[in-house]
Structures are given as structure tokens and as C-alpha cells.
Fold this sequence. Notes:
Helix content of chain A is 27%, strand content 24%. Chain A is of the alpha+beta class.
Amino acid sequence: MVTRYIGAPVRRVEDLRLITGNGRYTDDIGIGTGALEVAFVRSPHAHADIGEIDVTRALDVPGVMAIYTHEDLEDAAAEPLPVLIPHPSMHAPRTGYALAKDVVHHVGEPIAMVVAESRSLAEDAAALIDVEYRRLPAVVGIPAARAADHAVHRDIPDNIAAHLVQQVGDVDAGMDAAPHRLSFDLTIERSCSMPLEGKAVHARWDPDDRSLRVYSSTQTATSVRAAIAAKLGLPLPKVEVIAPDVGGGFGVKIMHPWPEEILVPMAAMRLGRPVKWTEDRREHFISSAHERGQEHHIDVGFDDAGKILALDVSFWHDNGAYTPYGIICPIVTSTQLLGPYKPGAYRVEFHSVYTTTVIVTPYRGAGRPQGVFAMERTMDRIAETLGLDRAQVRAVNFIQPDEFPYDQGLIFQDGRPLIYDSGNYPAQLDMIKDMIGWDEFPALKAEAARQGRRIGIGLGCYVEGTGPGPYEGAHIQVLTDGSVEVAIGLTSQGQGHQTVFAQIVADELGVPFESVRVTTGDTRRFGYAVGTFASRAAVMSGSAVALAARAVRAKALRVASDALECAATDLEITAGVVAVKGNPTASIPLGQVAVLSNPLRYAFDEAAKAATQFARPADPSTSPVAEGESPGLESSDYYSPPRSTFASGMHAAIIEIDDDTSEITINRYCVVHDCGTLINPMIVRGQVHGGVVQGIAGALYETLAYDEHGQLLNASFMDFLMPYVTEVPPRFEIGHQETPSPLNPLGIKGAGEAGVIPVSAVIAAAVEDAMGFRIDAMPLNPSRLFDLRRDFDAGRLEPLKGRPE
Amino acid sequence: MPEATAALAELGPSAKVLAGGQSLVPVLAMRLAAPAHLVDINGLGELDTVVADAGGVTVGALARHSRVEHDAAANRTQPLLAQALRLVAHPTIRNRGTTVGSLAHADPAGEMTTVLALCGGSVTAASTDGRRVIAAADFFLGPLESALRPDELATHAYFPALPRRSGSAFVEIARRNGDYALCGVGAIAELDELGVVRSLRCGYLSVSDTPLVLDLTREWEAGEGTVATRARDGVDPQSDLHATADYRRHLAGVLTVRAARQAISAARQAVGAA
Amino acid sequence: MTEPTEQRESLHEVKLTVNGGTRSATVTARRTLSDFLRHDLGLTGTHVGCEHGVCGACTVLLDDAPVRSCLIFAVSVSGQRVTTVEGLAGEPEAGRPSGLSPVQQAFHECHALQCGFCTPGFLTTVTACLAANPAPTRDQAVEMIAGNLCRCTGYQNIVDAVLRAAELQSAEVQGRQK
């Protein structure tokens, strides 16, 4: 295969429609066709029993078509929402209902749905619905959940949803034998995905066909389809779900089914008109999902070189009011905490607890940032205790390049063994140290100090299991005009899938890039898929596309070899033409091969007419379609790996603290990352940029501030501080390393989350280095840093060992 | 205009005036308030004026922030206008929001309320009963509460000119560019014939319920440390999720010194150039 | 809260010049300009991200100046001139075979968009800013986009796109002058 497109920074095919205002996001669907619009009554209380719901005044609002509460739901739709990923350790899972039944457990939970001629009218009506609430105590924050003075769910008095311990080796023996031991606590607060486009659903019921078409701003069209079919009692083939253009996901849109994904189609069926819902920003804050909130306790035993002999981690994970997505995030934290290291023995225990707040489901990183924070802060502490270089301590603990595949001895989020397939951590460390100027930094710091400036440097390493299964698939079809239609089951939210997968097909099949059209996230085009999350699309769909393209290529060569009366091995495909190697005049365009592949050849178009020149008389003793063959130049193929493939990376940053104001500025930010083979380096770089900025946002700007009554105080962009361009460094320095994955045909590893994972750890470390006291809670901001500095100056905070008071 | 005041007279407290809408419309969108009526004055072109003379700058109710910000004559007369307006939200917001509108909104986190108070300006209010001029000191009654009656329309704001031999500055610290400041300080410094600071006055943002103005002339004579201490003692900040009261108080001290230095330096340049 | 709506809201005809053509629709007084453009005129290129003026996705040009269309009522601007993202491209011509404006072309070249949701707001803003300052420094380019949120790109490529757009625009101007 001649690689022209794979590895090239090909510009995106998506761009043309998006830069001309011709994108089609879910709220754009069906504009001007008179779809009814939806607004919800959402709980204003964090915890309350629901009494009477009186809709009389609302029904008087002209333009209101229907109002639904839980009473109006039928059969499966009236049952609790599903627990998508059960786990034996999640002994007390709970989910809500599509519309609340009897009790609400967080501000924002939907209670009633109003369908009206416009959103304004629907909201007017919603404001006139009277709900009787009997308030119950709110439970906010991990300490309150643990103390369990009040229960979030009446039948779970200790507020614990899950408890899981994983261990490798004998931690207690390792700890006893360790010459040095440390014990400390760490905290990370909530943040969230916050895509610029919120959730949206548009549903149409066809009464003639008795079929449902639903557009949803989702990361998994196939799973939403299955959920809708189940909840609304429809046969799967009668439900189509399409994820059109989606304005960002970052994890929050992998959660499904959202109540609205069931209720809006239900309303469309009952009312016989298209129905749409687009959430507003406040709704997104209080009724989608958050993540990141955890509290950790670490015990670590190590030797004089800083080698970890025993690591004992126990943490508490705030899962919010319900557990529809199970315990994926804390499992990821537990397993990915190990990073590129091989501690002598490891034990990790977590409790996942309920609070009367929004549910917690994966957000870019999905528990990894917390695990990396725990491990990287531990490495820094070890270095501090021993007076050793922080990079050196990490190097001493690395899995070495000749130790792959490396079995960490744990079970990963995909239910499979945590076995790292490939990587080279010492080389990454050399690269990042070189980029940031690690060894030269002490001199830089001293010079800055002479100028009265306070700077610090931080380092963070991570390993990311990407491309978890169970599978993804692709369908490729060459049409009679030579164009190539590709359909993959998973979805896109800006990752450039239509470009990246066309690159693979162009190279694998030998066709012009411009002739390939890729469709994503449309169950009409591809019915079996898992979804876009866990940095898996390139690995999973990329591999499936490669396999399908190879199958189509093989078939094309078979058909062409028959027509050209030569061996398939004599043929090659270049620029969409199958030709005999070294004899370009003996050739057939691929479109005509497509015609030939179908024994039924009505000459509808020029390609079909032209193909007749190659048609050989049928052999009357054999069937037109041979055993094991099928008509058409197409193939569906699936890629299903034995386990995940492990990307990795290291970040380093130099930060500066303003002595007067405690403002924190990032002077330089460097990234080295390894995601195996790069299909499109431009797109990968873009993913890293975006991830790093989300990481910086999480480290220095974003938190979700609940008060003790369970009210979210900052449910708007005014007070939830997503950074503008002015809040982030103007330039990120990025280095690449490529250790291909042995697990898939192209050697790809995932890149989508790489940017965000270690950022909090890096920034905490850099601030600590600048200030000389410990940072063990994130996020930071100038006001908090000011408080810490005052405590330090007053002697209430210890200095780092070996640093002046 | 008579239609506007007549409407306000008739509708009273059930109406809100709509000009720029950059503060009002978000409140309506979030359904935090639902006035029965909006009196939309965007058609009153006669109020889209910025007039600078020796005495000061008169800004009409429909003059957008960006117009005031880029009016050369206005900013020669009172440099604080552009110095503060640069910090109001983002240029796109300033293209629609009005300076008089932001004064009527009376937000103690609003830059222009501080500027009006610091300059000792005033607001002209019109109603079916006639007009009255309300001095800045009497205009801001509390957070988001101005002295305007429900039937009154603020038609103009007057910002007195920067005195001779004076300089001004406006500094603030916010979490993100364009956000409400955690603390902001405007300063006007006046020099005497010998170049000694004869007056230093500072106006504060986000650290009190109504715009606070401090005369720091004596403190400046005693040194920057004293200025900072007086500033810290003079402000009354609140804690919120972005910053504690103590941090804001600390910033008041730091930013007062910064603003003072910049204003004095500007004054020296003005004197040198004269 | 609101009084019960006993009768329908009054409707108003709003007539605007949008992207060079006259467009009109009859809407309620509380219809925002963003909803008017999207739902009443079918110009769905302008996006709504927050409805409180912070994100900038809804930015359009009103008489050539960038404004947040989510914070303006359509009735307030009847008779005025609006440019949306759909109005930025022109006819294909010799120096511009795709018809894309220099700003659009630059965003494409520099990979300055991923999901595309915030992009229309950036495009209109940058178009207006470059009209006012055709040769920005890097710092000025940063300032131009400092009021628009993007969650996908991390901004670095968008700043590059502003500078590239300035280059393309100036080349076009020079080309025309010859």
C-alpha cells in the first residue's frame, strides 16, 4: 500500500459546510416545518417528595398541545431509566425515571414535560404548573455523604452505591518492609464537559410506516436507538437514530438515554407531529452530568532511590444522585492511577457515594485526571522527602521498554486485563525534559528570583487505555460511478472523522481522497456500534475501516482479474483504477468493477453501459452469484480487539505567580505524547490543544459550586469560568513519539483525551515548586492561593522539605 | 421621547426601559424577572449623542459604550472614560450596551458607575413631570438600585472634565478578561505647580454595595504603605465563589497603589506636555 | 411570575436587510434576533450557546458591528442591516475559486474549527475586526477573538487563522489594485 494520505495533515472535508453556516445541528433540523417544542418543569429542590402536580393553569396557555407527568408514561417508559453498566461491586445502583415519580433527588430533575407551539409558550406554561413539594434534607459533598446524617435514597442509609477493592501483590508486607513511608490526602473538585452545543432531540413519527426517526446530539446513535425501541415498545428496525452535526460532546453525550431522548419521541408518537427539544444553558448545568469530584487518601512505602514498594490508595467518588453509567469513572481512576509505573504492590479501594446533585458520568479523561493527580503528587512527595530530582524518581519507577506487554494485574474498565501493549517511557521523559529545559530550570529560577519573580516547574506523566471494545464496524461500498460510500457506526463531535476515515480508505483502497464520502452516527447506514468515547474512534473505527477497505479491495481484484483474465496478484489499484502492474492500458475503473460485481446489470448509467465491454458470457453450469459471494462491491467488517491499547504522554509547565496578586500565569506548556500511528497529525494536534485547555480550565478556573441546600450557584457561563483565549498560553509546544500498537492493523492508539489528563497534576506541581508549600487540592485560583500563602506565612502550613521557611 | 416618558408614566413599576439590553436581556432569558412591559428606546436617535466641552462630557442614553470609548474629544476631556470602558465586558457587548444604561443599572461591579462617582458626575432624568439632575453621590442607593423613579427615563449622564494638571488611571483584576472585576480601582491625581500631588482620589469597583470614593491625598503623603492600608480599611467587600472578601480587600490595597502610580505618572506627562 | 396569557401575544412585522437582501417575518416582541434569524428566516448558521451574552456563538454584524444576537430583540432592530455567517462567502472569482471569504479560507487552512458550533461567531467577529484593523499584530489578533468561547480547539489555531486571514485579505486587495 502506498501511503499518501495516512500521516498527512489533510484539510478537513467537514469544514466547508461548517464555515459557511451550513452545518446541521439538531436544533437546525426541520426549521420552518412546524415542529412542536418542549420545555420541562425541573425540580427547584435538591431533595423532595412530590405531592400533587396541578397543570390546570398551564393548560390555559394558548398554543399548549400536551402536558405529561410520570402518570402519563406507559409500560417500559414508566420504569426506571436503565443501569447501563452494572458491576458486581455496585451493590446499590439507583436510577431516576424519565419524569420523576414521587421523589426528586437533585435540582434539575425533570418532573413534567410541556409540548407547545413554541419554546416560549412551553416555558410560559411550565411556569404555571404547580408542584407540591415536601422538602427533604440535601446531601452535598463527599464529607456529608460519608457522614450519612441523611440519606439520599431512603433505602441506602449509608449513601454508598459501590465499594471495590483491587490489589496486586502484598501491600501490607511491602509497606512494612519499606524504609520510608508517607501518608497524605488529596482533593479534586467537580467540573464538567460543557460543550458549546447542549443536548437536543428532534423526533418524527411516520404513522403510515409506523416508524420513528430521531435526531439527537449524542455520542452514540446506535445505543440511543436501542434504548428508545425498548422504552417505547417498538421493534428495533422501526427506529432510526441519527446524530447530525454535534457541537462538542467531551463525554457528556455518551450518557444515554437522557430522559428527553425517550420523552420527545414519545410525544411525537402520541401527538402525530414532529416534536423537538433543545436545552438551554442552565438546563445543561442542572440536568446533564458532571465529573471529577473525588477525595483520596494515599499511603506509600518506598526505598532510598524512590522506588515504590507499596502503594495503598483509598478514595471516595461523588457519583451524584443516580448511577446510570455505573462506576466506570472510579474504575478508570483505580486502574489508570498506576500510569507508566510498576509499584511493588498496589491496593486501591474506592467507595462511590450518592449526593443530591447532578449525576456523574465520564468527562474527557473519565477518572484518569484524578488518578494521575494522585500518582503524580505521590511521586513529587517522594522526591521531596528524599531530596531527589522529581524526574529521576519517576524514571526509577518506569516500566522499561523491554517489558512490554506489561500486565499490571488488574481488571480495566472494559472488563479485560490491564495489559500495556507498547510504549517507551524513558524516551518520553528525555524528550519532555529536553523540551521544557528541566535540567536548566534551577538556574532559570534563580535568575527569576533575582528579578523578584516567582516561577516554578511541574511534570506529569500518564498512561491512557484507549480503544476499548467490544467492537466497531464499517461498511464500504463502491458505487457504479466510482465514488466510495463509507458508513461507520460511531459518531462525530468535531474530531474530523469524515476526513480521517476517508484518508484510510483512500490509501487502503487506492482511490482519490475526494471520491470518498463518510457517514457517521446514522443507524440507517450502519446498525451495530458502541459509540465515541474513551479515545476509541480512530483505533476502533479506523481499524474497521481498514479491514473493510481491504475486503473491498480484495473483491475488486477478484472481479477485475476475472474480467481482465489475469491473476489478482498481477493487479493494483491506483487513483480508482484497477490495472495490471506495468501495463496501464489493461485496466478497469473501479466503478465499472462495481457494475460487474452485480450480475443484474440494467444499464441505468454510463458506467453500467461501459462495463458491458468487460462482461463475459455467464457460465450456465454455475450460479450467477457464487457460493459465499454477494452482489456489489462492498463489505462490512468489524474490529474487535482482545483488549485496549495504551497511549501515553508527559506534560511539563513553567508557571509564574504574581507576588502582589497571587495570579497564576502559565509561561510555557509542553506536551510529549504517544498515540501510535497518526492518521492526520493536524487533527491530533488540534485534539491535544483542546484537551490541554480543558485541563487548564479544570486546574485554574472551573468548579461546580453547590451550596449546602444542593443549589448550583454557578449555573451559567458568567460564573462557570470556561477560559477565553486570553486565559491560556498562546502556544503549546508539542512533541510526538510513536510506539505503534500491535493490536490493530494500522498501529493506532487513541488521542482524544491526551491533552487533559495530567494537567491538574502538572500545574499543582509547578505552583508547589514556585511557592515552597504543598498543593493538595485542585482547582486553584488566585484567591485560594492568597489564603494558602497567608497560612504559610503565619506558620500554619509546612514548607516543603529542604526549602526555606 | 414624549412617548417614552408617557409610557413610563402610565406603566410605572410594571415597565423596564430597554436600551442596550446587555444586562437586562440575560435576566429576562433566565426568567429571573418578568416585567410586563419593556419600553424600547432604541428608536430615539436624538439620544445617541456624545458631546465634549471644557466642562465635561455629556453622554446621551443611546450612546453605545463603543461610541463613547472611541470618541477622541470625549477622551481628551475625560480620559477615564476610555480607560474604564476598555475593561467593560468585550467589544461586542460594548457595541450594543449603553453607558447611561449601565449607570441606570447601578451595578457596584460596573466600571462606569465607579467612574461617574469618582468624577463627581450626574445623571439627568426625564419624566412627564419634567427633568431633574441627580448627582452621582445621590444616584446609587444600593446594589442594582438607582434613585430613578419607575416613571423616569435617564436621558443623559455628565462626566466632569479631568482637571488641569491631572492624570487618571483605571485598573482591575478579573478572573477572565471581560468578567466582572474581583476588584477595580479608578484614580484621579492632581499635581500642584511644584509637581507635588495635591489631590489623589480613588473610586472602587466590586468591593462595596455602592460606588465608593476615597480621598487618599493625606495617605499618599505618608507613603504607599499607608495608602494601601487605608484602601483596605475603606472597602467593604463580600466573599463569593470566585474570591474571598479578604482577597478582594488585599487587591484593593495593591490596585490602589498601582492606579495611583499610573494616574500620577499620567499627570506628570500632562504637566510636562503643557 | 407571569400573568396567565389569556390572549395571544401581539405580533410585529420585522423587516431587515440580511446578507444584502430584504427579509421579513411577523413575530412576537420577545423574539430574539438569534431566534428570528434561525427559526423565522431559516438562517441556521448563527448558533445559540448560552443566551446570556458570554459565549459569542450568536455573534452577527449589525450595521457592520459585531453584536450578540441572543441579547437583542428582533423588533428593536427592524430596518437595520444584518450580516450572518451565511453572508460572508461571495461568488467564486479568479483570486477566490471557492468563493470563501479570506477569513473562512483561513479558518479552513489553519484547522481553526473542530465541532464548528462556535465558528460562525468567530467568523463574523474576525471579519469585522479585520475590516477595522487589516494588519494586526499577534497580540491584536488575540484581542480580536478574546470575547468568543471555544471548547474544542484550544484557540491556538484560531489566532493563527486571524493572522492568515489578514495575509489572504491583503493579497486580495493588492491583487485587485494591480
